[in-house]
Amino acid sequence: MSEWYDIIVIGAGAGTKLVTPPSQIGKKVAVFERESPGGTCLNRGCIPSKMVIYPSELLRIPHLAKRFGFDFSIEPNIDPMRIFDRVNATVQKDSDSIPIAYEKNPNVTYIPKEVYFLDDQTVSDGTRKYKAKYIVIATGTRPKIPEIAGLSETPYWTSREALNPPKFPKSMVVIGAGFIGLELGAAYQALGCNVTGLTRTEILRGVDIEVRKEFESHLPFPIHDHFTIERVEYRESLFFLTGKDKLGIKHTIHAESLLIATGITPNTEALKLSNTNIKTNSFGYIQVNEFLETNVPNIFAFGDVIGKFFFRHSANFEGEYLFDQLFVNKTKQPIEYPPMPSAIFTHPQIATAGATEEELIQNKIAYWKGINPYSSSAMGMARLSDSGFVKILVCKKTETVLGAHIIGDEASNMIHQIILGMTMKLKLDDYLRMIYIHPAISEIVRNAFRKVKQIKVSEGKE
Q1: Going edge to edge, which strands form the sheet with 389-395?
Q2: Higher confidence at residue 112 or residue 73?
Q3: 406: closest CA among 338, 348, 337, 340?
């Protein structure tokens, strides 16, 4: 005999978007979670990492102050473990509060167990069977571990351990030069750890090339790109990594800690999808249609596990869409993604939305480009900025923004005015019609649009 619900949600991270809202309109909800409720974002991702990154940024102030003639010669008394202890206590408290709230809700059944499919309509936790009108999979992803000789026999870290270390290391090697490696590596470096980065490809692969070049000129810690790691060993409390650089020269690098940040893989293996007709792609991500529905009717998936976007904000958007489609409007309209922004909270900070210049060239889309450095603005002058810029790519045909890329202070905040414009399909002159506060840092965005306008006028398009 199976227990019946209106909706079953597998995963209490972004999946929570389909728990409380349906329960508030009288729907009976069951939610399963095999780890800490709140998912990767709350427990071992975006929230705790930013709680570590922000105080680490404060430690950069003495260095930045030197350009103004200030000398902070007193050695700061830093205890990084106090930061990590505070962060994890706060995160634990938030995570623990989720089941407590569910227990008070008569329409929600929280089941802290791993669940798997018995068939297309039934799931089980190994003890009981469950059925529902709708089943939603939001199991997310986990760190992907590369196949490197000797690595599996060592006590390496992923982001999970790096955000809750047993002790703070004096040195660390980071394998990978994407979002996670750059954010945590920069934070550890600022907190006093000697960090070295290794990546078998290029740094920030997929980011606009001019942003990559600017970042490579202001790395928060040394990173060796196109480095092939041949072997990892752990002896006498040290990691030893042997490999070859881009010139084929052999190196051995050692450190107290080793952080693996080489990508992610979907959490689908425990679901026993082989018992169903649910399809996945060659990487294990669940395939969905434009309604976020799998090839099995009334079984949906969203968030990282579908392999489209890998942000909590995109998963939240998808969860809210599904709630609206399944329980509010019930009109079955396909999901329409607005421009999807991203940010890398490293140093310098990076934020992007829309297409890169390389993508526009590849797709043969005519565009105007405007780049304005931080230094070419009143606030940039006040800050004595020596790096950073705003880059705008505008379609010649429609005069709407195709891509926006910012590297520098407050990039993740500054880009929002462009994201709004892109979402509303504003044109070039709309961005220039608004009044920007002088001398706010957002004037750098305006100046980039002015550069686009100048190019447009010079081409006789005005």
Answers
A1: 341-344, 350-354, 401-407, 389-395, 367-373
A2: 112
A3: 348
